[in-house]
Amino acid sequence: MVFNMFRRAEPAAPEKKASASGKVVAWHGAGRVAWSPRDTVSLTKAGFAGNPVGFRSVKLIAEAAAALPLVLQDRERRYDVHPVLDLVRRPNAAQGRAELFEALFGQLLLSGNGYLEAVGGDSGVPLELHVLRSDRMSLIPGADGWPVAYDYAVGGRKHRFDMTGALPPLCHIKSFHPQDDHYGLSPMQAAATALDVHNAASRWSKALLDNAARPSGAIIYRGADGQASLTEEQYARLQDEMLSYHQGAANAGRPMLLEGGLDWKPMGFSPSDMEFQKTKEAAAREIAVAFGVPPMLLGIPGDATYANYQEANRAFYRLTVVPLATRVAAAVSDFLARFAGEAVELRPDLDQVPALAAERDGQWRRVSEATFLTDAEKRALLGLPKLAEEE
Predict the structure, then answer these.
(1) Model pTM?
(2) Which helix (H) or strand (E) holds 141?
(3) In what order do the strands lie in the sheet containing 70-73?
(4) Pair 316, 294: CB distance under 8 Å
(5) Residue 188's Cα: distance from chain center in Å?
(6) Would the pLDDT of 22 be above 50?
(7) Across residues 237-252, what is the average pLDDT?
(8) I need a labelling partner for 348 at 20 to 30 A (CA). Which of 5, 220, 325, 374 fits?
(9) Which residues are 152's β-sheet partners?
(10) CB neighbours of residue 42 within 10 Å
(11) How far is the C-alpha of 311 from the C-alpha of 133, rounded, in Å?
């Protein structure tokens, strides 16, 4: 302590203020591409509400799957009248079967998760069915990892659905996700990079149209006395006149009047500009492929995967619509069977799908001509229930 009193005080280091993450952001973030957020709300706005390819892909799948006719059957027979069929035909006062299933398929495609709420049903089939928004729902896992409740948040309020009872109030349908045990992976997330590229290309095209549908040129100043620069007043005046009279779609094609010493050099399209439209079309095809929609059905040029439109439509139903509708119908029927107390199954009636008529005709013909099969085996191969004993 005594020696410290006579020691010359060292000058203090100047105070520096900096962010703790500044070094990481400054070095590791430099030059990186800025991607849009990957949460459900942002992807829905950018990929569905703000992108025509994503919008049409989701609408095409959801409407086609919701329009498939459904049949209800068990091991013994197919039902024409049943409380589950009545509920599916009119699930609530505001929606019919097609509207309800279109909303359910849309939520599943946009977020990878679909939630169906059952209202009532303490003594039988539920009174109503409602589709809940996926972006408002959060899962609460229990000690064993299985969900014990779901929280539905609207504004500042939350409603909790208890899943520990004998009859759960929610049916959670989710797509396969290899890295998440509770939530599904949506096609929108897989197509997020292509969506960003397609939206950026659309903004580039809009900016190009705002500049008379061609890239900007250069105004070169050559003074009479060899001067190569304008005064501040001349520069500001030139900028004001360009903004007022020569930029924007409304001024496209207006002749430019330049004073002495100013020379306009137009710039044409570079090879990279000409390839930009091809990049946009390639991004559109990637979005369609992620959703399972043949690009030909969306009017995307340059795709020759299918020989004709009919073949593409048949592949769309066979590879995308039917598997999705079958999986959702199975989950909904299993959910409703708990309330009804019967082992009934909802399934799409493929015999009434026009796009699959040729395939179904061929299958019926092959099965009917198989003389080594009994009638019961033929009905089983065609997905039909057994005949009643009196038949």
Answers:
(1) 0.74
(2) strand 137-141
(3) 78-79, 70-73, 345-348
(4) yes
(5) 3
(6) no
(7) 64
(8) 374
(9) 137, 159
(10) 13
(11) 35
Q: Two tokens at 156?
A: 């500042």
CA distance 97 to 346: 13
The residue written with tokens 């049943």 in the block is 82
Residues 163 and 80 grouped into a single domain: yes
Per the DSSP assignment, residues forming a β-bridge with 140 are 149
Structure tokens belonging to residue 4:
């410290």
**H or E stretch at 188:** helix 187-190
How high is the pLDDT of residue 375?
80
Which structural domain range is residue 377 located in? 357-391
Structural domain contains residue 381: yes
Two tokens at 14? 């100047």
Please say whether the beta carbons of 345 and 79 come within 8 A.
no
Is residue 16 one of the residues assigned to a domain? no
Give φ, ψ of 45 to 5 degrees: -70, -45
Confidence of residue 11 (pLDDT cuts 50, 70, 90): low
Neighbours of 129 (CB within 10 A): 25
For the stretch 311-331, pLDDT in tens is 888 899 999 999 999 999 999
Distance CA 315, CA 299 (A): 16
Number of domains in the chain: 3
How does DSSP classify residue 355?
G
The answer to whether 44 and 109 have CB atoms below 8 angstroms apart is: no
Terminus-to-terminus CA distance in the chain, angstroms?
A: 110
Q: Residue 9 domain-assigned?
A: no
> At what angle are helices 52-66 and 97-111 packed, to 10 degrees?
140
- Distance CA(336)–CA(343), nearest Å, equals 10
**305 in a structural domain:** no
Nearest to 60 by CA among 280, 300, 297: 297
- How many other C-beta atoms are found inside a 10 Å radius of the C-beta of residue 19? 9
Q: CA 191 from chain center: how many Å? A: 8
Query: What tokens appear for 161 in the block?
Result: 């659905």
Residue 150, classed as helix, strand or coil, is strand
Over pLDDT 90: what percentage of the chain? Answer: 40
pLDDT score of 177: 93
SS3 content of the chain, % helix, strand, coil (to 5): 45, 15, 40
Spatial neighbors of 121 by CB under 8 A, at least 6 apart, are 127, 167, 339
